[in-house]
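Structure tokens please, single chain.
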Amino acid sequence: MMPLNEIDRLKQTVTEAWTSPIADEVAAAWGYEPGTARWWRSSASHVFVLPDPGGKRYLRFVPETYTGPESVEAVATLMDRLAEAGTPVVRPVRADSGALTVTVPTAHGPMRAMVVEAAPGEEVDADELTADQTHAWGRALAVVHRDAAGLDAALPQAFSELAEVPERFADDTDLVKAAARLGERVAALPRDRAGFGTVHGDFELDNLAWDGDQATAFDFDEAALSWYAADVAYALRDLTGPDGRIMEERKALVEAFIAGYRSVRAVEEDELASLRLFAGVHAVCSLVRITRALGTPGNDEPEWLAELRSNLEAMAREHRALAIAVAASTEVT
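Here you go.
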């Protein structure tokens, strides 16, 4: 997630018509006229909606100070290769220059940008999931893992945030100890091709669009090299409780997800046994990213920003509690 002050800085340029002169400068690289792009949201990147003869597209950009051009290019290349291979993911749209990503100088500094097609269909909430859809959800993730094997050029290693914990949370002894224990456990896991490779990084339901029982994936911002089981664990967060364990009332859905995944890729029992471990590690990394984004609050924050800060602080407390609980569990000794 970008720092809140960066989100606020861009938001201040958004007009009542949801346009922004910064977005206009970026969208011009794809041939769009000023006033065409409409703000949709800002989180890991600023996202604006663009018109398209077939419906709509999404313009995504982030200040180059917060992400290197290599990482954005790697994500766009991965998505392009997957789409070309027929994997159900959204396809990047090349700029007028023919490039998948472009660095655009703007009044707010250089922005690293890409445009993607819209995914067909609608989002589905966890409370609306059917067993068939959950099976298809698991299968869709396995298809991404299968088709992305070997397409790992320039992608980062997952869980790099663990290294920041001792300094960033030096006054939180319990968290530092928990992160160290979880990190040691993950470091001991094998990295063979059967269980380790290119992952989506955020295959939750809000990053999928459904057309019937066909799921199309988007938002590959967190794509990385990691364990496939870690990707499964992150996807299933909507079906687990605050302690990282599968909720009793969701067990049938989790079983359907795993069955769908196994219809494409084999999953060993020891990988399934590591799901809660990865839930704890993800919690630590999410806590680091939230803390980076929070920064220092200003004296005159708008109401929406103060509310967002409060929500993120509550999420940070939940992630901390989950990480400590998992680290203390005998399941990860």
